[in-house]
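Lab channel / #folding
Pinned by the channel admin:
"Please post every new chain as: sequence first, then the structure tokens as a reply. Keep commentary short and put observations after the output so the thread stays searchable."

First post following the new format, from NK:
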Amino acid sequence: MSKIAALQFPTLALSESRLDYYLKASKDNGVNLVVLGEYVINSFFTELLHMPKNMIKEQSEAKKESLIKLAKKYELEIIAPYVSVEAKSYKKLCLKVTPNGVKSYEQQILMPYEHW
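Reply from TO:
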């Protein structure tokens, strides 16, 4: 049987120590699937509007690499919302990170907000 943990907290700093702590606790409690909240990996959209594009890309890539490393370390599957920096825009994705790799999925339904 699958055991799922849903983690919601403010946007994490680039350091992975807090995420490591919660993923370890999840694994120690028999969890095999962790779902991260909307703005755990990337900043809130209004903050993104004021950030340089290269900083958003750096933030996204660093967090993605942390998720890959931690999924392998704790043998977990992790679902996480993710902002991908494209050539002329941003793309909201959902990452599925497993010990064996990463898949990304585009959002199927977008809320009717101008920023997306």
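NK: The chain has one domain: 4-106.
TO: also worth noting, The first strand starts at residue 4 and ends at 7.
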